[in-house]
Amino acid sequence: MPLTALTYRGDWQLKYTRVCVVHDVPLVPLWEEKTPSRRWDFQARFSDLLGSPILTQTRQSCSLVSAYDHWLHQRLLTGKDDTWFQSHTIFAASRLCLHIGQQIIDHDIAGAFRSPGEKLPEVIGFNALREGASRLPTVLNALVAAASGAGAGPKKAFGALHPMLNRDYADAEEFEEFRDVMRSCILENWPMPRGTLS
User: What residues are paired with 26 via a beta bridge?
Assistant: First the structure.
């Protein structure tokens, strides 16, 4: 029975997983379903796929497996992590890489972080930050410099990273170190009256 042999690897379910590192092929969406209970009912979705050409199509090697993809694969598979992200959850580290990378793209400074020509924000963010905790303030200050001029402020410099840390995950312990570094960067660059920065 095909349905007893089909599986959906746990590491492929993470939103930030885009390629199969082992086979060097891009992952493709197998289905789209708006209702969460139906979306996560794998047996029903696999039944829908029986006979679908998507299961038999040969995928070309993508040769685009990045250091970020290898890091994520290794972390999910074994828990091993040789980067400074080892003390952070995969979720927090991946979110930070995504948002930092997007701001680097928006400010057009990817070349400064060893990612010229790279288009994926999470890869750019990972390349910029992976060498150590000291990279985060360096990158944040580069974003501040790139956003200088009329209307410059934390929201312009940090984009979606600012509300992510300041609002969405304001009480999440796994983001505490990132919040503290961003808060210090804001105070260094835009002194504010006591009590105006949470």
Answer: 19
